[in-house]
Write a structure and sequence with these properties.
2 helices; mainly alpha; about 110 residues
Length: about 110
């Protein structure tokens, strides 16, 4: 049993893939070093929280812009549908838009 414990201990010491439990610079050891590390960590957390709030704000703005663009697209689609239903325009399956000649009679072609 003691041999197994010693074997595990030696394996842990010689393992190059091990990660130290605490990565603190040698100059900041002790209670004051721990306090400095804690303050640094808290400052970094505050920075991350501020960035998260900024990203949330930008995300909300983007969502509002998307909603406005969707509403405008719906209005434009309604207008196109109304123009088609009334015969003012005709749209082919390929996307070409035609205005029947009767609707152009009041417009000048600008020939000069």
């Amino acid at each position: 049993m003691g041999l197994a414990i010693a074997s595990v201990g030696l394996n842990a010491i010689s393992n190059a893939n091990s990660v130290p439990l605490k990565s603190v610079p040698a100059s900041s050891s002790g209670p004051s070093g721990d306090q400095a590390l804690l303050q640094q960590t808290q400052a970094e957390i505050s920075q991350y929280q501020a960035r998260e709030q900024q990203y949330q704000s930008e995300l909300q703005q983007a969502a509002q812009q998307l909603n406005q663009a969707e509403a405008q697209a719906q209005q434009e689609q309604s207008l196109i549908n109304a123009l088609q239903d009334s015969g003012v325009i005709q749209i082919t399956r390929s996307g070409q838009v035609f205005v029947p000649s009767g609707f152009l009679g009041n417009f000048s072609t600008g020939g000069g």
